[in-house]
Amino acid sequence: METEKLDVLIVGAGLSGIGAAVHLTKRCPGKSYAIVEARERLGGTWDLFRYPGIRSDSDMYTLGYNFKPWTSRQAIADGPNIMEYLHETVAEYDVAPKIRYERKVVGASWSSDRAEWTVRLAHGDGSSSEIRCNFLFMCSGYYSYDEVHDPHFEGREDFEGQIVHPQFWPEDLDYAGKKVVVIGSGATAVTVVPAMAETAGHVTMLQRSPSYVASRPGEDKFALALRKILPAKAAYLITRWRNVLYQLFTFNLARKRPKMVRGKLLEMVREELGPDYDMTHFTPRYNPWDERLCAVPDSDLFNVIKSGQASVVTDHIDRFTPDGIFLKSGKQLDADIIVTATGLKLQTGGSAEFDVDGETVNFAETVNYKGVMFSGVPNLGMTMGYTNSSWTLKADLTSEYLCRVINLMDRKGYDSATPTLPAEGIELEPLLDFTSGYVQRALSQLPKQGDRKPWRLNQNYPKDIINLRHRTIEDEALVFGKARKSKSEPSDSASREAVAA
């Protein structure tokens, strides 16, 4: 079996993995690294999802990297524009030669004797290989690419039309002039509905309960004006910080004064749809930011509702019928195509199996350390973005922090860094304080967080800047060590293979 030795292995060639490669190149220039990507192309989420209207639900001045200004006019960008940005980044920083496509991580084993991970890879052609590395950086995202949340609907097999999940969108789906029902009310649903409504006969968004939906400008006039008078980097930085602080302000305001924020959000919807519209379809049962707010660019969802091209129905599904969906209210929704925008399946570390010195790692039994590492797991970092802001804000800081850890280990001659829980123990809490269905379904399988630093998961970018970029690396919780054996000595497994040979 082919075995390669690297300093750092990055898993995933999406937004996080490409960013991690650039940060590593800039901050740890002497380190050897590679990116392994299970798919045949880079891009992650932005290449995987091909449904109509695919776009960011965060502004690109915060979803973009801190080292590369976003220069397109779009603030809420579509998938192709984001992919172009990623390809530009790869070209600018010569990342392409480092990416190994169709390499899926199926397992990773840590040896304290050698202070190394041995990562097992399954290739797209059916072969396999191993890579040994000192540091493993998981940038594989937070959800499964292979599985989705696809609840059972009674009578599903009776439906004579086509059923499609957005994660597995068929390239040849023809919905022109057809009746479409989109099941769901989250970010995917509010994106698909206006995009399909442009050519479909009619699109119905069927939801069990409403979400908060707010319109945002597709272009940021403030940012565009700044570009005319300032260099691109300066304009980008100012816009980025303006948007970060605004997001943080509105989130904190929603937590402190939920009734006021709720009233303002509902008032904005009334202004969009008019005084006669039935507001029950946009009046959630929960408080703002208990779930992620759905942003729609330039009122596109509201516009297709006002034009009659789309409509919203709030009800429960009784069963599928040959012609559509029968609701518990007794109404029938006719459909030629049903889109099940029913959510993602969350996971930690992809589908790979991890072990430390032969002991299986169950991430659900670990505790988050600074939102970057996990208790008892050496030399492993993972990108976990914010739930209340842009993913890349945290991804950038995670990469910066891990580079700091690696550089400190080099300076002081350490081979390992392991987050270690205090002897007196800590109170454990769920990792995420979010009521969204996709989060609640996965909480029991996610790592935990503690009741105090550094075991808390911040949802606050300025605080994380202090904690991850400026605070000292060495604390009581992060235990550094050295390999128990010389790395030139063969591992036990290598010795066995040599004897067998």
From TrEMBL:
Keyword Ribonucleoprotein listed: no
Cofactors that this protein relies on: FAD
PANTHER family, A to Z: MONOOXYGENASE, PUTATIVE (AFU_ORTHOLOGUE AFUA_8G02570)-RELATED
Family to which this protein belongs: Belongs to the FAD-binding monooxygenase family.
Record protein name field: Predicted flavoprotein CzcO associated with the cation diffusion facilitator CzcD
Keyword terms, alphabetized: FAD, Flavoprotein, Monooxygenase, NADP, Oxidoreductase
Species lineage: Bacteria, Pseudomonadati, Pseudomonadota, Alphaproteobacteria, Sphingomonadales
Source organism (scientific name): Parasphingorhabdus marina DSM 22363
Region Disordered: start-end pairs: 480-501
